[in-house]
Structures are given as C-alpha cells and as structure tokens.
Design a protein that fits this description.
Rossmann fold; 7 helices
Length: 220
C-alpha cells in the first residue's frame, strides 16, 4: 500500500494477515529508489516473514532521475533526512521492535542508522563502508563514525568478495568494529536483491536472505 511519510517522502507499507506487531522491518532501497522491485519485496517479506514492512524513496521529489544522475547528485543527500525517513518508516510499522536492511547505497545508510539507536537489528547488503569520494559533502557522515555512536554488534554486513564498492581493507575495518560480516566468494556488487542483474547469484542470494531473516528476527 502506498503512503506518504510525515516528511512528505513517498513510501510503501504492507502488514501481515496475522497483524503481528512484535517486530517490524524497514527497507532502504538501492540508488534507484522505490520502484516495483521494492514494492514486490515489501509484499513478499511481509508475507514470508510475517511482519509489517515499510520502504521509502531515497530521492524524494527527484524520482525522475536516471542512475547516472542519481550517482552524480548523491552528495546532495542529507543524512538527517534519510535517517529521519527511516525512523518515520519504522514508526509507521507500529511495531514494538524494528529491524532495518538496505542495499547498495541503502546498505550504506543502514550502517549510518546505527547512530540513531532506533533499530533493534541492522542488515547491510553490500553497503559502502566509506562514503565514495564523489559523494562526500558536509551532509554525508562516514558510516564508520556512525557505527561508533551505536551498537555495532547489532549489524550484519553481507558482501561479495569481488565487489569493488566494498574493498577488502574497508571490510576489515567493518569486522574490527564489531560488525558481523559474511562474505560470499566470487560474488560481485548487487548479487542478492535483483534477479535481473548479471551479478545475481541465486544460491548465494537464497542463503543471504536466510541469514538476514535469522538476524533480523532472532531465529535460527
């Protein structure tokens, strides 16, 4: 179901038939933002995980931008707005505890939400561990700094060994901070969430989703 967050940002939310409220989930999309891929993901996880799920647009008011334009203007994104939208999305689930997961750019922001201390569990899928040079600005804090302001032990980071967006030296920093890191051999950027991408690896994706569910829901 489509909705608008109090900030004015477009979002979608789905609630399970059971109407459970113990655990909710927020999803931060990749750079291309809220689109049918994430509408379907929200619906699927609400059913399969039996929890309320909410996702929102990363570039509100600029949904028309293509991928090159979004990457070029990433430095204009403000942590306060993105993290604020994530918190409003969490409130929309009306759940006692809320986990959060994100992909690519959304994975980077998932790491940053640790500083808010709003979320019970965090799962970053190949999120940038350091803000890329072209994206740096006064409104972009470093993920590693945000991790120090919250509980790094609450974070699961899923990465691919061949992903240049998450180089090994950055992954080592993440591990040293207390984050649990799972690296999939020979996997490249974006290997989990979009089956239409050449990088998609079905078996690794299935395993990664199982681990993410276990992490967020606290089940084995």
């Amino acid at each position: 179901m489509k909705m608008t967050l109090p900030s004015g940002t477009n979002a979608v939310i789905e609630k399970p038939v059971s109407n459970r409220r113990e655990q909710g989930l927020v999803i931060i999309p990749d750079v291309m933002g809220l689109r049918p891929l994430f509408h379907d993901m929200v619906k699927r996880l609400a059913i399969e995980w039996d929890i309320p799920v909410c996702s929102f647009e990363l570039y509100p008011g600029s949904e028309h931008l293509n991928v090159e334009e979004r990457l070029e203007t990433a430095s204009r994104l403000e942590d306060a707005r993105v993290i604020g939208d994530a918190i409003e999305a969490a409130d929309a689930t009306q759940s006692e505890q809320v986990g959060i997961l994100g992909f690519c750019m959304g994975g980077m922001y998932t790491l940053k939400t640790v500083s808010s201390q709003r979320f019970s569990k965090h799962c970053s899928f190949y999120g940038m561990i350091r803000v890329p040079k072209a994206w740096k600005s006064e409104s972009q804090s470093e993920p590693m700094d945000c991790l120090r302001e919250g509980d790094a032990d609450s974070v699961l980071a899923i990465v691919g060994s061949e992903d240049t967006w998450t180089p090994k030296e950055d992954v080592n920093l993440l591990s040293a901070s207390g984050v649990t890191v799972i690296s999939y051999k020979e996997a490249d950027h974006g290997f989990v969430h979009d089956s239409s991408r050449p990088a998609h690896r079905p078996l690794d994706a299935e395993d990664a989703w199982m681990k993410a569910k276990s992490w967020v829901l606290g089940s084995s």
